[in-house]
Specification:
By secondary structure, this protein is α/β, with parallel strands linked by helices. Helices cover 37% and strands 20% of the residues. It is built from 14 helices and 14 strands. A hairpin with a 4-residue loop joins strand 2 and strand 3. Helix 6 crosses helix 14 and helix 10 crosses helix 11. It is globular, with a radius of gyration of 21 Å. The structure holds adenosine-5'-diphosphate (ADP). The site of adenosine-5'-diphosphate has 13 residues, from helix 10 and helix 12.
Length: 397
């Protein structure tokens, strides 16, 4: 069975065609600058060089048509006919409180997604455009929506209600939702497989550390707490996002600098995090290099980032009543041995016996705690596309 996985942003989209017999991607790619000048598609057939096709693409439907053409192209394609695509899985950012699992898309689901636009105004409209365009292009293929928020829906009310007037939850659905759910779900399942244990038997903390970062406490397979909140701004310090700050800073700075709501939003989402602290870059590689050359603010940014992760691990261990597995994933979590070592330093009291040598890995599955360690520490590369494809297969049979 071949499944197309689509992840639509407002002006870009990522895709992967996965062969479910091998669970390998046959081809993947990225369309950029949809609806603006300079639209292009970067398409890659497994084992071949990337090709870049530039052509005006005024909307998502035209862009997805280019994707289908690339997939069946004589030279760079991997299928002969688009009907070989048996189902389509769509990444959808926000399902509000409506869905706690992936769903087969029908009119009712589309209506529910439209009702969630207010909660994810930057993301859900693009996801919906992608679904509607694919429905026109492949009218016979079942489509499945896989939500970023779904895996976190098991959180108890005491974790998702904020300490503000309850009427804001009742009137506007202001509560913690959490993000990166598909990634946390995939890596937790993979870790259980690597450890040869049942997810139902372990307490796990999953650290998704990338440009956007979040951490989740998973008790016997169910999320009981996660660091992102009403939006992806809360929690850890990130590439450009501030994560947790004293909320009073917001009104204080708005007054001091005469900032509009949009300007303050930009400060917190685009100008903060390790970029804001270091003044250098949002990319951890640049920050690590600058810190190695003696740049103090770069070193401070890394220390703040790592310590925040460590604090959440402590908090979540307390909530879980102990921890059996801690794992790292995403850009920084998979690739940065230095960040992992700094985060794990001093956690011996929890039962972590960290293996510095084994930690010297990049981008592949590995155990980075010693064999005798009570708490197992792992690196597990995430694969949200495969998780989406698996759900799509299960629901479209
Ligand atoms: P997102 O999906 O949130 O955009 P990723 O999970 O792809 O982010 O992570 C991207 C980040 O991973 C980059 O910004 C970079 O800082 C970091 N990264 C990638 N490779 C390394 C590395 N070798 N060392 C440190 N950081 C790295």
């Amino acid at each position: 069975m071949k499944i197309l996985v689509i992840n639509c942003g407002s002006s870009s989209l990522k895709y992967q065609l996965i062969d479910m017999t091998t669970e390998q991607a046959l081809a993947s790619g990225l369309v950029e600058r949809i609806g603006i000048e300079g639209s292009r598609i970067k398409h890659e057939k497994e084992g071949m060089d990337k090709v870049v096709i530039e052509s005006p693409m005024k909307d998502h439907k035209i862009a997805l048509n280019f994707v289908l053409d690339a997939l069946k192209d004589e030279k760079h394609g991997v299928i002969k006919d688009i009907n070989e695509i048996e189902a389509v899985g769509h990444r959808v950012v926000h399902a509000g409180e409506k869905y706690s699992e992936s769903v087969l898309i029908n009119d009712e689901v589309l209506k529910a997604l439209k009702e969630c636009i207010e909660l994810a105004p930057l993301h859900n409209p693009a996801n919906i455009m992608g679904i509607e365009a694919m429905q026109e292009l492949l009218p016979n293929a079942p489509m499945v929506a896989v939500f970023d928020t779904a895996f976190h829906q098991t959180m108890p009310k005491s974790e998702y209600i904020y300490a503000i007037d309850y009427k804001y939850y009742e009137n506007y659905s202001v509560r913690r939702y959490g993000m990166h759910g598909t990634s946390h779900r995939y890596v937790s399942q993979r870790a259980a497989e690597m450890l040869n244990v049942d997810l139902k038997d372990v307490k796990m903390i999953t650290c998704h550390l990338g440009n956007g970062s979040s951490i989740a406490a998973i008790d016997h397979g169910k999320v009981i707490a996660t660091s992102m909140g009403f939006t992806p701004l809360e929690g850890l310090a990130m590439g450009t996002r501030c994560g947790d700050i004293d909320p009073a800073i917001i009104t204080y700075l708005m007054k001091k600098e005469n900032l509009t709501v949009e300007q303050m939003d930009k400060v917190m989402n685009k100008e903060s995090g390790v970029l804001g602290i270091s003044g250098i870059s949002s990319d951890f590689r640049d920050i690590e290099n600058a810190a190695a050359e003696g740049n103090e603010r770069a070193a401070l940014a890394l220390k703040i980032f790592d310590d925040r992760v460590k604090k959440y691990i402590g908090a979540y261990t307390a909530l879980l009543g102990g921890v059996d597995v801690i794992l790292f994933t995403a850009g920084v979590g998979e690739n940065s041995a230095a960040n992992r070592e700094n985060i794990m330093r001093g956690l011996e009291y929890l039962g972590v016996d960290f293996d510095k040598e084994a930690n010297n890995v990049r981008g592949k599955e590995a155990f980075i705690s010693k064999r005798s360690s009570k708490v197992k520490v792992l690196v597990v590369p995430t694969n949200e596309e495969l998780m989406i494809a698996k759900d799509t297969m299960a629901l479209s049979k």
